[in-house]
Every structure is written in structure tokens, then in C-alpha cells.
């Protein structure tokens, strides 16, 4: 399959307005060239259920340079929905395995994994990406990423946001069969912190988080209740 056939549907999407675009939209047939250039780097934060889908969609949409960061390792409970992982991958870093799987399946894509906490990366590292896409289940992590991108924002002499400092961020979340996605443009749209009141109190936690990387008092209590209690005292 040559490039013209491979990207035919994507070119149609980028070169015509469609029905769901806002006022002032201008189709850009040159956008694919940018997506596949060295200047375009996309960061996927999280390689879990949502992150696997994001990585697959980015790779199949023509994005060439993708980075993924995740601090978790693969648990057996992940395998029913995180399709980039296999039984033999249990215990391995999610970011590393996800990157290897995408690189082996989609020719021309280069996914670079980062196994670690998002807080361990310096702000300038996040500044180097064209867009940041979140696939996180933790409100604390999403609030942190929101503070990072909003910290880049600067204003010009007239008090308007400097477009060169606006770092687009896509926030996504799932709950059972429901989900949402939104684009956050600091200085132009409400940020994650502005709409935090929309989220209900978190009462359930992913089992993989509890078993592998409990990182809050609530996680530790649930870990003792759901895992240790049954192991030590029986049902």
C-alpha cells in the first residue's frame, strides 16, 4: 500500500470542513505533512485503558513522533480491556510494552516510552510537545498536568493570551461505559481546575492501582480491604 492510499481517508478529513467544525474553520491539506514532521511531537500521558486507545488512534492517524509516560506496571486485571498487553507482559512497565507493540504493528511510527511519575519530568520537557493528551484515571494527576500547561501561558502587552505560549491539552476520562473528552486551551477555555466541581466524589479505584502502585491513604485502605483482608482472614 502506497502513502496516497494509506492516508486517503485522513486527507479527506483534513481537506474538507465537515459538519462538526466551528465557525471560522479552514480545511488544511498541509496538516498531514506537519503531523508526520520532526516538528510535531505528541505526548500521551497514561498507557492504561484509555491510553492504549489514544496511542492506537494517534499512530493510525498519521502522527509519527509520539511519547508515552506511565508509572504503572501491567496487572492481570488490565488484560480484559487494555488490548496492547498480553499475559506474558504482566509485571512489565505499561509505557514500555505499549510503545513496543505500536512500533511493531504500525510502520513508520516511533513511540518513545517513559516509565515513571509525571511529576519527575521538568516543565521544559512538557513544553517541547505540540499537544498533550491525557489518558488518566487520577484526578490528582490530571490537576497536576493542568497546572503544568497553564503555567506556560503568558499574556501580551494588551492583556491577551500569547498564542505562542498556549499548550493545547486534551483531557479524557471513562467511567464504566461512559466517557468524555474535551480540549483545554489555557487562556481561551475553562481549565481542568475550573470544572473540578463537575466530578462526583471518587469512591472506586482501579484494582491495578491498588495492587501495584497505591499512592494515597484511600488507596492503602482499599488495598487492605479488598486484597489483604481476603488473603489473611479468608472470605
TrEMBL record:
**Which GO terms fall under molecular function for this chain's record?**
ATP binding; NEDD8 activating enzyme activity
Entry's Gene Ontology BP terms = protein neddylation
Q: What class of enzyme is it?
A: ligase
UniProt cross-references to PROSITE patterns, sorted A to Z: UBIQUITIN_ACTIVAT_2
Keyword ATP-binding part of the UniProt annotation? yes
Q: Give the residues annotated as active site.
A: 208
Q: What is its EC number?
A: 6.2.1.64
The keyword Secreted is annotated on this UniProt entry: no
Catalytic activity field? ATP + [NEDD8 protein] + [E1 NEDD8-activating enzyme]-L-cysteine = AMP + diphosphate + [E1 NEDD8-activating enzyme]-S-[NEDD8 protein]-yl-L-cysteine
Q: What is its pathway?
A: Protein modification; protein neddylation
- A cellular component term, taken from the record's GO annotations: cytoplasm
Keyword annotations from UniProtKB, A to Z:
ATP-binding, Ligase, Nucleotide-binding, Ubl conjugation pathway
Tell me which residues make up the THIF-type NAD/FAD binding fold domain.
Answer: 38-213
Summary of the function given for this chain in its UniProt record: Catalytic subunit of the dimeric E1 enzyme, which activates NEDD8.
What family does the entry list? Belongs to the ubiquitin-activating E1 family. UBA3 subfamily.
Instruction: Specify the protein name.
Output: NEDD8-activating enzyme E1 catalytic subunit
Amino acid at each position: 500500500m502506497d502513502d496516497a492510499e494509506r492516508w486517503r481517508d485522513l486527507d479527506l478529513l483534513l481537506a474538507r470542513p465537515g459538519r462538526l467544525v466551528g465557525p471560522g474553520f479552514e480545511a488544511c491539506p498541509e496538516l498531514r505533512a506537519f503531523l508526520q514532521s520532526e516538528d510535531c511531537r505528541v505526548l500521551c500521558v497514561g498507557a492504561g485503558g484509555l491510553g492504549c486507545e489514544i496511542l492506537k488512534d494517534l499512530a493510525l492517524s498519521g502522527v509519527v513522533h509520539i511519547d508515552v509516560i506511565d508509572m504503572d506496571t501491567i496487572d492481570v486485571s488490565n488484560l480484559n480491556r487494555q488490548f496492547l498487553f498480553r499475559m506474558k507482559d504482566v509485571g512489565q512497565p505499561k509505557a514500555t510494552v505499549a510503545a513496543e507493540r505500536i512500533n511493531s504493528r504500525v510502520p513508520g511510527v516511533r513511540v518513545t516510552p517513559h516509565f515513571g511519575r509525571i511529576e519527575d519530568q521538568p516543565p521544559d520537557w512538557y513544553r517541547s510537545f505540540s499537544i498533550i493528551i491525557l489518558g488518566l484515571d487520577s484526578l490528582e494527576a490530571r490537576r497536576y498536568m493542568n497546572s503544568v500547561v497553564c503555567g506556560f501561558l503568558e499574556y501580551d502587552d494588551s492583556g491577551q493570551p500569547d498564542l505562542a505560549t498556549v499548550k493545547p491539552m486534551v483531557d479524557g476520562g471513562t467511567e464504566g461505559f461512559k466517557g468524555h473528552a474535551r480540549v483545554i486551551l489555557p487562556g481561551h477555555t475553562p481549565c481542568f481546575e475550573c470544572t473540578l466541581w463537575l466530578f462526583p466524589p471518587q469512591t472506586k479505584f482501579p484494582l491495578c492501582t491498588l495492587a501495584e502502585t497505591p499512592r494515597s491513604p484511600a488507596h492503602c485502605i482499599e488495598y487492605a480491604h479488598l486484597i489483604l483482608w481476603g488473603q489473611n482472614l479468608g472470605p
